[in-house]
Amino acid sequence: MNHTTKPRLRVLLCILCALLTLAWLAFIFGNSLRDGEESGEQSGKVHQIVNDIAQSIGIEKPISEKTIRNTAHFTEFAILSILLCLDGWVFRLLRLTKQPRVSCAFALLAIPACFLLACVDELLQTTSPGRAAQFSDILLDTAGAACGTVCFLLFFFALRAIFGRKAKKEAAVS
User: Fold this and answer.
1) How far apart, in whole angstroms, are the C-alpha atoms of residue 16 and residue 60?
2) What's the predicted TM-score (pTM) here?
3) Which residues of the chain have pLDDT under 70?
4) In angstroms, rounded to a whole number, what is the distance separating the alpha carbons of residues 144 and 170?
5) 168 burial via Cβ count (<10 Å: 0-12, 13-18, 19+)
6) Which of 64, 75, 71, 65 is nearest to 40 (CA)?
7) DSSP string spanning 9-43?
8) How many domains is the chain built from?
9) Which run of H or E residues covers position 78?
10) DSSP state letter for 113
11) What region, left, alpha or beta, does residue 61 occupy, with left being phi > 0 and alpha being psi -120 to 50 degrees?
C-alpha cells in the first residue's frame, strides 16, 4: 500500500459512515412523517410478529404494543448514537496520522446530538395527521442514545484492552 492509499481509504470510510448515519436518520424521520393510521398499522404488524415469535419460544403473556413502540424508540436512537460515535471516530482517523484512541468526551457528544435530533423527530410528528409530539418519547430516545454510546465505548475499550495486551506480549517477545 503506498502513502496515498491509506488517506483515500480513510476518506472513503468517512463518507460511507456518514451516508449510513444519514440513511438511518432518514429512516427515523420517515417513520415520524407517517400519519397516525399508517403508523398504527405498521405497529400492529410488528406487534403481531413479535408476539408470534414470543409464543413460539414459550412466552405465554402477550407483549403490549406500547412496550414494542417504546422499544423501537429506544433502539432507533441507540443505533443512531452508535453511528454518530463511529462517525466521530472515523472523522478523527482522517485528521490523525496514527490510529486514534476513542475519546469519552468526543463520544459523549452523541448524546446531546441525539437529544436535539429526537426533538426534531417529535416536531416532525406534529406535521402528520393523527400524530403528536411527546416529551416522554424524547426522553426515551435520549436514554437509548446514552445506552448506545455506552455500548460503543465499552466495545472500543474492550478492543483496546485486548489488542493492548497483545502488543505488550509481542513487544516483550522481541
Assistant:
1) 43
2) 0.85
3) 1-5, 96-102, 166-174
4) 39
5) exposed
6) 65
7) HHHHHHHHHHHHHHHHHHHHHHHHTS-HHHHHHHH
8) 1
9) helix 65-95
10) H
11) beta
Q: pLDDT tens digits for 102-121? A: 677 778 899 999 999 999 99
Cα-based distances in Å from 64 to 54, 76, 104, 137: 12, 18, 36, 17
Rg (CA), the chain: 20
User: What residue type is 166 in one-letter code?
Assistant: K
d(CA 73, CA 138): 9
Structural domain for 83, as ranges: 5-173
Q: Which amino acid is at 132?
A: A
